[in-house]
TrEMBL record:
The protein's name in its UniProt record: Carbohydrate-binding protein
SUPFAM superfamilies reported for this sequence: Galactose-binding domain-like (SSF49785)
Taxonomic superkingdom: Bacteria
Length: 900
């Protein structure tokens, strides 16, 4: 009976998986921020939401952007429109999520949190060292924010003024100017230092004692911002005030629309200002938030006076430096997480909605944990303890920048699995690459490039692709101002792209790819330790960051998936059949990327047991020197292979060759891939060619196997049996979802999977001459070359849908395929007035159906991007107009006769 029940359960799971693949729910469909630049009327809400639904978007998050006057945010008119939008969304079957703030940086509620509550504004710790009895703190500036321009400063600071008040000496110490042998040689003189003078920009302090020769006085002074709208995230009362004035009004207005269709609240980059000042020096790269509770938290965690722990944060205080520094940041991070995220979670659960969102990610657009926002020190913000933060939210979300593979989705999937869930939402925004004004965005983004990134993200751990965003308006001409002109608010607003009518094709396909992955666990033989306490102690410029980035890139380049694990994951793991069982996965090897500091020895003890059971432990860079519980350790405990060098291709290949292969293997050119364990002995694979040339490879799985092709474009499934080898030929940007299982019997058949197989290229016809063109409906037609884009032929600033026409003759009656070698960027084809198909990415191949011999009319509607239109006459265009339309001769290719 148990075996029969298991078979029945597997069959049910298979049916449910297939049903989800055919009709993916909102959780797998693209979602989007809906940028409100003004309060919309009912007609606008109905028109735009219906458009979003038609284009395949499943979830919308309303986001008030800087173009919306701040005083209108959360006004009665705003809340009425919000409720109306929720009603319309429900009628359309859309889900709605609460984006929790105005613009971004959660917690300020458009400035309402701190109105009348000055004590909730961000308060920071600054420090200064000198051999004198007097000193200053001066020229405090948010370097990170200043780069974004005056409008962002005006949004974050009242009147655009960065001012300070309530200067307070929090700690002061005397210490050797040279090396400090031990922290007990530090003299706490806090009671003897006072503020000597201050204004809104700086303060001076004075020590009433003497500083001996060879000694230094270091003073830590806190100040509260008098003008910042950002809250102090260490204060739970600030989080509660944010809830009261920022979230409760929305939920109250929505009423019974919560929790359906409004089922989540999304926080976005809660972070203090990243301040620098003239006297700043030491290990920490920005000021720290301060609240009185921090003193007791640090004392409890470190066991040393607050002043001593602070000095360890910024400079070397002897052998205990790394331990004290790590424990300080652990206390600081825990206080922040509980004060802000903990309050949000409790509130969300009380409303029966899901808490999700993402902290600021210093690794955005990079594989190295601190390779994105290199000008900030993530330890001063909720931007290091990703596993801890994820244990507080209900669903994982991360932030990704631009169209490159990066750490965010892999880290998101990892922390989700560590906390008993899986996969994540990946918000993708676009910063300009051809101008220094990052907010100008990328109107040049194509649907093909976005689709490719969405598939890569899915392979790296994303469940849902979140657009940043769909726009309410497309902004103003002749105004290059970033942010307040919506046109340059991290473009594109995808619904104003000429290729937007093709978005539903992308939405259906990526939803099915994601749903296909959902039913299986990834084959990830390698676990990479996320070295949290090393990051706390050493800081963002330490080698652990670059070593992590190198391991990620080298493993993926060789087709080896991996997952990040925490110290606790390893310490609590089981060991079975030479594998480490953690986060719901089975690992053959564990990587220690330049790990110098650990929280406890529990992980090392488990790794020792793992090595003794036949597991592999690989390390690079530096080795463990400090354990925060105080035990002495050898840096090479349990390690089976160590190199001080950065991991390279040769080294990683050699290490991977020591692992026993499991499941389907790929031989030949390597595609982007995802491979996972399915139920009942099945495997699932996603293979994708994101390159510019065809690739070919073989899939092997024992002596014989059955397989099925799950067509993500059509939602169909086709099964095949008893093959020895599956040869896959992928054209550029072609993706395949394949399910396969050993069949227990030998097979000699080789199956070939190729979309080109049915084409008879010996009889192709090049349609090179005779084309005419109109720059949009209702425009006059004129001759045009199809070997060059229309931007080179009198239409440099035209963004939209251009129409190409051609009369052609076929001498043979046949089923014909139209192949377009180069399209910029999406196309719909008509033959003899009948629409025959549309494509938004390569391969641009459209079936024309059965054509009789004789003359026919071909019409191609080609959409480019909005770049040439919106960047025209601005500093953001770059070197010239982007390619548009056709840039190679279309081809007519007859289909081979197929046997009946």
């Amino acid at each position: 009976m148990p075996e029969t029940a298991a078979i029945a359960d597997a069959a049910i799971a298979d049916l449910e998986s297939r049903a989800l693949f055919e009709r993916p729910t909102a959780a797998f469909r693209p979602s989007a921020y809906w940028f409100w630049h003004s309060i919309p009327d009912e007609a606008t809400c109905r028109t735009q939401l219906a458009d979003f639904q038609t284009k395949g978007i499943g979830t919308i998050l309303i986001q008030a952007r800087l173009a919306l006057p701040r005083e209108q945010y959360l006004s009665p008119h705003y809340l009425l429109a919000y409720s109306l939008a929720a009603d319309i969304a429900a009628q359309l079957g859309l889900k709605l999520g609460i984006y929790d703030d105005y613009n971004w940086i959660s917690g300020h509620a458009g400035g309402r949190t701190v109105e009348g509550r000055d004590e909730l504004r961000e308060r920071h710790l600054f420090w200064s060292s000198s051999a004198d009895t007097q000193g200053t703190i001066s020229r405090i500036h948010p370097a990170f924010t200043l780069k974004m321009g005056a409008d962002i400063i005006a949004w974050q600071y009242e009147g655009g003024r960065i001012e300070w008040c309530e200067w307070t000496v929090e700690a002061a110490v005397l210490h050797s100017s040279g090396p400090i042998a031990a922290y007990d040689q530090i003299v706490d003189v806090t009671s003897q230092v006072s503020i000597a003078g201050s204004d809104r920009a700086s303060c001076s302090y004075s020590y009433d004692g003497a500083v001996a020769f060879g000694w230094t006085l270091t003073v830590f002074i806190s100040a509260r911002s008098a003008t910042s709208r950002i809250i102090n995230y260490l204060l739970p009362e600030a989080a509660q005030r944010f809830i009261d004035v920022g979230l409760e009004p929305i939920v109250t207005a929505l009423g019974k629309r919560v929790p359906d269709p409004v089922g989540s609240v999304f926080y976005d980059q809660p972070a203090p200002g990243f301040y620098r000042w003239d006297q700043m020096a030491g290990n920490l790269g920005n000021s720290l938030l301060f609240a009185p509770a921090l003193k007791d938290c640090v004392l409890s965690k470190t066991g040393v006076p607050f002043a001593v722990a602070l000095l360890a944060v910024v400079r070397n205080v002897g052998p205990e430096t790394l331990r004290l520094r790590a424990l300080f940041h652990a206390a600081y991070s825990t206080l922040m997480n509980e004060a802000f995220f903990g309050r949000l979670r409790g509130w969300a659960e009380g409303k029966e909605i899901v808490l999700t969102g993402h902290e600021i990610l210093a690794h955005v657009s990079s594989w190295a944990p601190n390779g994105g926002f290199t000008s900030i020190d993530p330890r001063v913000a909720p931007a290091v303890d990703f596993f801890g933060i994820d244990s507080i939210r209900h669903e994982t979300a991360v932030d990704a920048n631009n169209l490159v593979p990066q750490l965010a989705p892999k880290m998101g999937d990892s922390v989700a699995r560590s906390n008993g869930r899986s996969r994540c939402v990946v918000e993708t925004y676009f910063s300009a690459e051809r101008t220094e004004v990052r907010a100008a965005g990328q109107w040049e983004v194509t649907l093909e490039a976005s689709r490719a990134q969405a598939i890569r993200l899915a392979c790296l751990g994303a469940r849902q692709f979140l657009w940043h965003g769909v726009y309410q308006t497309d902004g103003l001409d002749n105004d290059p101002t970033p942010f307040t002109n919506p046109r340059f608010d991290f473009a594109p607003g995808i619904n104003f792209e000429p290729w937007w009518p093709y978005h539903d094709l992308f939405a259906e396909e990526i939803a099915r790819v994601s749903a296909f992955i959902e039913a299986a666990k990834p084959r990830a033989p390698v676990a990479i330790l996320y070295p949290l306490y090393t990051a706390f102690a050493e800081g963002p410029r330490h080698g652990h960051a670059t070593h992590i980035g190198a391991w990620c890139e080298q493993l993926l380049a060789q087709g080896c998936d991996f997952m990040f694990v925490s110290e606790a994951d390893i310490a609590n793991a089981a060991i079975e059949n030479r594998r480490l069982l953690a986060s719901g996965l089975a690992f053959d090897a564990v990587v220690l990327p330049s790990v110098t500091v650990l929280e406890t020895t529990a992980m090392l003890q488990k790794l020792d047991a793992f090595t003794n059971a036949g597991g592999r432990i690989w390390s690079s860079g530096e080795t463990v020197s400090t354990v925060c519980t105080g035990e002495r350790v050898s840096g090479s405990v349990g390690v089976t292979s160590h190199t001080t060098a950065m991991p390279n291709a040769e080294m990683v290949f050699s290490l991977l060759s020591t692992l026993t292969p499991d499941g389907p293997q790929i031989s030949g050119q390597r595609p982007w891939q995802w491979i996972g364990h399915d139920v009942d002995g099945w495997w699932r694979m996603v293979v994708f060619n994101d390159g510019a040339e065809d690739i070919s490879f073989d899939i092997l799985l024992g002596d014989g196997f059955d397989y099925a092709i799950w067509d993500a474009e059509q939602g169909s499934v086709e099964a095949f049996a008893a093959v020895h080898k599956l040869t896959v030929e992928l054209e550029p940007h072609e993706v395949r979802c394949i399910r396969l299982r050993k069949n227990g019997r030998a097979a000699v058949t080789t199956s070939i999977l190729s979309s080109r197989a049915a084409l008879d290229r010996s009889q192709l016809i090049a349609l090179a001459e005779g084309w005419t063109f109109a720059a949009g409906e209702g425009r006059a037609f004129a001759p045009i070359s199809v070997d060059n884009g229309w931007e080179e032929q009198s239409f440099p600033a035209f963004s939209g849908t251009g129409i190409y026409r051609l009369s052609f003759t076929t001498e043979t009656e046949a089923d014909w395929m139209l192949e377009l070698p180069a399209v910029h960027t999406a196309v719909t084809a008509y033959t003899d007035g009948t629409k025959v198909g549309r494509r938004g990415w390569r391969p641009y191949r459209l079936g024309l159906g059965h054509l009789a011999a004789g003359s026919h009319e071909l019409e191609l509607h080609v959409a480019n991007t909005a770049a040439n239109r919106y960047y025209d006459n601005t500093p953001y265009l770059g070197s010239g107009p982007d390619k548009s339309g056709l840039t190679a001769s279309p081809l007519l290719i007859p289909l081979r006769n197929r046997p009946e």
